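Handoff note, outgoing to incoming analyst
You'll be picking up this chain. Sequence as last confirmed:
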Amino acid sequence: MSQFISVFDMLKIGVGPSSSHTLGPWRAAQKWIQQLHDTVIFENITHIHVDLYGSLSLTGKGHATDLAVLLGLSGTDPEYIPIDSIETTISSIKETKLLQLDGTKAIPYDENTVVFNRDFLPFHSNGMTFIAYQEDAIISTETYYSIGGGFVIQEDTKAPADNKFTKKNFPYPINRATELEKYCENEDKLISEIVFQNELELKSADEIDKELHRVWDTMLECMYIGCHTEGILPGGLNVKRRALSLHQKLIKGTEYTDKSNWINAIRNTEVKFREILKWVSCFALSVNEVNASLGRVVTAPTNGSAGVIPAVLMYYLVIENHNADFEHIKKFLLVAGEIGSIFKKNATISAAMGGCQAEIGVSSAMAAGALTELLGGSPAQSLVAAEIAMEHHLGLTCDPIGGLVQVPCIERNAMGAIKAINAAELALETDPKEAKVPLDKVIDTMWETAKDMNRNYKETSEGGLAVTVGLADC
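Most recent structure output, in case you need it:
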């Protein structure tokens, strides 16, 4: 029986800058706290220690991994925490030297509570170990791995710690793209219709719509904030936000009051070809500037690639179809989520395992396939679009300068969005029967490329731009 990964597993709401280095460790801390409660150990704890390993350590400072762990241990949730309270919570911990474990139990905190270790644990590059003490005795030791996109697994079972995988018998169990295409052909359904039927096994139609509304509202809010915020991004690179100035030039003085009528305002501007490219880039940049400043975004499928899918969907809404409504948004997100899940099942969406091809490449493929369906393409053409997008991201390394999700990450989202649109257009002009490379084959190739890639180019900041252009150069 195939694994089932919900659309809502692939499109998670959380806090930036990284799904694997921020959201994952945050969730792991929450899971550990719950385990301490379940085993009746919590009340006996006098102090704790956390070790971060591998990529979590090498780029952890730039990804705010230590802060994410503290926030998770404090009992806050990345999906709902008020963004403005993050700095206050962290400052309080550091100033008082006390950590409110799960928000209820004060234990001592110092600079050695969370430690960065350069060593790699054998199972995955993103490993972390939580240790609880009662005086001098260790009463709990648990190791978790953040495997990309906010997914977390536990050392002892290698099973998902968040129980997002299920063994229910879904009407259309999907592991490979060929299976998805076959279902569509046999049932005469679009990809979005097949995916929706599977999702109905977990949620009612109203619940699915409500959650998809929430995902899109978060994406839209993120783009809106990014397009209306100036300043310098945190972290030491002194990267200037660009979405604001680009947006101001493109909107051309068109008036609007809030994000609810912002889309119509953009539709009413005169748009030429070069401006279309700029708008798409603006949308992508805006999301990832918010992400880089510990803002709330949707992993799509990761935080580092969070700008591609919103940018391409926004392109459809403001350029391709001015009459588009929620049903179009729903179809797009359902298709994107399913394509992402096939990559997740057969390769990786973790840059620490596969380089940036596993983030920007996968997000571009997700967006390309989804856009193709909205533009009238067949299910086979949607899968061709996803293949084209990934094919032209193969081998893309992850080499963030200073371990920050800023350079080259933010611009890569703009490039990934443009490639997705290009891939969709090419696919619409392609007879799938004549396509030379199936999507499953390019996924397999991406995974083989990932395994062959030098570790330095897998989110360690020890290769590529991170070395040739360091913080000192900026």
